[in-house]
Design a protein that fits this description.
28 strands; alpha/beta; disordered N terminus; 821 residues; eight-stranded parallel beta barrel
């Protein structure tokens, strides 16, 4: 259980809103290694721009929040003996540099690129000064953010390492995140403008230079019970605040009307979009996805966008228009590429690579004319059924924590970034809430410098947002949370170690830190992971015991064996401490709703749907085959005699037994898929466009996976191996008996039950043509032609119907038995 103090904290007004509160912590700097800025004066140029003055105010505010010190700002240097923080453009060094101006003017270690800056420390017998010298306006902004990350801030004290010496500029010109104020998100729909401004500040500190807004009309619900303002009013306010900090403003604007070949539809769309454009004080770019959502043939879509570019330029003459080929089928994708090559539309600024593009990013860069830059639109918010899923995610996590859970994946995000970003000018990430907060800062940090070690970004994150004394421990904790998700959960005892580490931090935390939403998110995940593992252990053990009783059943004792197995399955013991863990999870969910308006339940916090981050609503989903076994046992009871009941029991306990000389693969379970050809895998193919991956059935509410399909599902049907788009899913069997005949028993489950699937052996022997997946889900059998096995090797390849668009899924196989006849 969490401590009584923590329960008391919940009643305080510390974080009843989106408050950013920080702990009184002691810095680890030894005397003499740092300069004292506790009484510093912030000096700003007389000719500073409005955004530069805005970021100076941010500097003063953020220091005050963490230290209760309110530094004075001035356009003039103070008297000797007073420390100085001088902030401005490098071309103002003559007045900004004070007595150090001549020395700074000789500084040859300067980076001159756009948005670059220098941080310099100077000290003499009259006092110390730190300089933020931007190459331009944005250099001032991001240099100030870097200074905030470097400061050591404790109650009533501010210090800075004396040897700070930075000269840097960003590697990528575009570094941003989608911040969609809409019902679908798991938190954003409850934020007000003050909260948005704080989040903008947080992102700026780590080098973000763009935000992407969402218009009132998308594929979303028309309203949210959490909205503090109407959508267009909020959108205009978010645009205005972004402009005050000189952040680029993008709009993600899906083309949602049914038929853009109809001139009347086009005129309607021009009016609607134009109305939105004219209400926003700043727009730098508009990105229109080709699909997900939207579904318009490229020739009509591009004609619409050419007209929309004219509308956009009436109120925002410099704004650019971008488009993506998301969800296009093969014909539409080819048509899109031909339009780019043949027409080279001048109104088009660039191409976006996002989810559901049917080719890889390197391949898209190769196909798109060089004149069009490519922007990455990486999905950093989802963990399964998405562009970059968690590799080899354990079934237990997938069905309990689900698709949109709190998901710090620092090393995984760095892998994606470093592999794919070189083909782009930068990124605006796809986000649907603050569940992916850590991932945003990994992308922003790497967008500035791809070589930055991930642990350094996490230490800055922990030090700036949690507190200086947490800089390493919290950073290591975030890495541990990612490691919790690696490998089979049942054997991952590190999950319990991770929780122990976070509990130590929790016990030592002040009320202010316990009210910090980023601290709460990490705790929530640590408790969740441990709770799921404890349940998995207990339920798996109960299933094994029940199956052991059934295996021991003898003729004349079948009814007794059935009753004993049912009793074991109905009386799964609550694991030691599991109830306390669950209580902590629910308490932290309540804390997160109060601190950040995170909606972790539909019934408790009015989340828009179970599949939108409502982890509490799936937390207790069954993790064993209990329901399936109970259903089979009920059917066995009805058998007329002992032999029939024994046969029914035998089918349950020998489900995965392929018989002598046979083979079984549970293809969604990475520990039981010895014949699956996996391909390059996440490290080289994180979107799995050419590799097999583990997938999971249905939406994010497993209990609603297939309401039109009768019967309970085995856990082995809730996950599967899958390939995407037109890539095959391949299995290879070696050392078969070349003289034997074989048959294949297979289960086609998955989340694309309406999509047909075909199986061939070797390269040209058809085992079955394109067929619909059977309903209800069940094993089906096919003979394997002798010609396919006579060499002792069998290669099986599955494909979904070629050329389709949509999300690329559908070639999904849950179980396979190769049975020797």
């Amino acid at each position: 259980m969490r401590t009584d103090l923590q329960h008391a904290v919940k009643t305080l007004a510390v974080v009843t809103t989106f408050a950013f509160v920080y702990s009184p912590l002691i810095t680890s700097q030894a005397h003499g290694e740092s300069i004292d800025l506790t009484k510093a004066v912030v000096v700003v140029s007389a000719n500073a721009t409005a955004p530069e003055r805005k970021v100076v105010a941010m500097l003063v505010d953020e220091i005050a929040k963490r230290t209760d010190i309110h530094l004075r700002s001035s356009e003039k240097w103070p008297a000797a003996g007073t420390s100085v923080i001088a902030v401005g453009r490098a071309d103002a060094i003559g007045t900004l540099g004070g007595r150090f101006a001549d020395d700074l003017a000789k500084d040859t270690n300067a980076v001159g690129e756009s948005e670059g800056y220098r941080l310099r420390v100077r000290q003499d017998d009259k006092g110390a000064a730190v300089f933020v010298l931007g190459n331009d306006q944005r250099g001032v902004i991001f240099g100030t953010g870097r200074l905030l990350r470097a400061l050591h801030m404790t109650p009533s004290h501010v210090t800075l390492a004396r040897d700070l010496n930075v000269a840097t500029a960003p590697a990528y010109p575009l570094r941003g995140h989608q911040l969609g104020y809409r019902p679908k998100t798991n938190s954003y729909d409850a934020w007000d403008l003050k909260q948005w401004e704080q989040y903008y500040r947080d992102l700026i500190v780590f080098g973000t230079n763009a935000v992407e807004l969402v218009p009132p009309r998308t594929d979303d619900a028309p309203t949210s019970p959490h909205f503090p303002l109407p959508q267009l009013e909020m959108m205009a306010g978010m645009s205005r605040i972004a402009d005050e900090y000189d952040l680029d403003v993008w709009i993600w604007y899906p083309a949602m009307d049914r038929d853009y070949s109809d001139p009347n539809t086009i005129e309607y769309a021009l009016r609607k979009w134009g109305y939105v454009f004219e209400h926003l004080p700043r727009i730098d770019a508009v990105f229109v996805p080709g699909g997900d959502p939207g579904h318009t043939q490229p020739k009509y879509l591009m004609a619409l966008l050419e007209r929309q570019a004219e509308v956009l330029h009436r109120t925002h003459p410099q704004a650019k228009l971008w488009v993506s080929p998301q969800s296009f089928n093969n014909v539409w994708f080819d048509e899109f590429i031909q339009i780019l090559k043949r027409d080279e539309p001048s109104w088009l600024a660039g191409i976006v690579f996002g989810p559901q593009v049917r080719v890889s990013l390197p391949k898209l860069r190769e196909m798109v004319p060089e004149r069009y830059p490519i922007r990455h639109y990486p999905d950093i918010t989802h963990s399964r059924q998405c562009q970059y899923p968690v590799p080899d995610w354990d079934f237990a996590y997938a069905v309990t924590e689900a698709r949109e859970c709190i998901n710090p994946r620092p090393q995984g995000q760095a892998t994606i970034f470093r592999l794919l970003q070189p083909y782009t000018i930068g990124f605006l990430t796809y986000s649907e809430g603050c569940n992916d907060d850590v991932n945003k800062f990994i992308w922003s940090g790497l967008g500035w410098d791809p070589q930055t070690p991930v642990i350094d970004i996490l230490r800055d994150y922990a030090g700036y947002f949690i507190g200086d004394s947490y800089r390493d421990n919290f950073a290591q904790g975030l890495l541990a949370l990612e490691e919790n998700w690696q490998g089979p959960l049942l054997s991952n005892s590190a999950v319990d170690t991770t929780l122990a580490e976070f509990r130590t931090m929790e016990r030592n935390a002040t009320p202010a830190i316990r009210g910090n939403w980023r601290f709460q998110q990490a705790l929530f995940r640590a408790y969740c992971d441990a709770y799921v593992r404890s349940r998995l252990t207990s339920e798996t053990e109960a299933e094994y015991k029940a199956l052991a009783h059934l295996r021991a059943a003898k003729s004349g004792e079948t009814m007794k064996a059935i009753a004993e197995a049912e009793a074991l399955l109905n009386a799964v013991p609550t694991p030691s401490g599991a109830s306390d863990l669950r209580t902590c999870v629910f308490e932290l969910a309540d804390d997160l709703y109060k601190s950040i308006r995170m909606q972790l339940s539909v019934s408790l916090y009015k989340a828009i749907g179970v599949d939108r981050g409502a982890t509490l609503d799936t937390l207790d989903y069954p993790l064993s085959n209990r329901s399936w076994i109970m259903q089979r046992l009920a059917a066995a009871r009805k058998q007329p005699d002992e032999p029939s009941r024994l046969s029914a029991i035998q089918e349950i306990v020998d489900w995965s037994n392929p018989g002598p000389g046979g083979f079984y693969d549970d293809l969604g379970n990475t520990t039981r898929q010895p014949h699956l050809e996996r391909g390059e895998g996440f490290d080289r193919d994180p979107a799995f466009l050419a590799s097999s991956r583990a997938g999971f059935a249905g939406g994010d509410a497993p209990r609603d996976i297939a309401p039109n399909i009768a019967g309970a599902w085995r856990t082995s049907w809730l996950d599967h191996a899958e390939s995407l788009i037109d890539a095959p899913l391949t299995m290879r069997y070696n050392d078969l008996d070349p003289t034997a005949e074989y048959k294949l028993r297979v289960v086609y489950a998955g989340d694309g039950l309406e999509k047909k699937i075909r199986l061939i052996a070797d390269d040209d022997i058809e085992v079955h043509p394109y067929i619909s997946k059977p309903r209800p889900i069940r094993p089906i059998e096919f003979d394997i032609p002798r010609a396919a096995t006579r060499t002792g090797t069998l290669i099986l390849r599955w494909n979904r119907e070629p050329g389709r668009g949509d999300n690329g899924r559908g070639c999904q196989v849950s179980e396979a038995w190769l049975i020797k006849k």
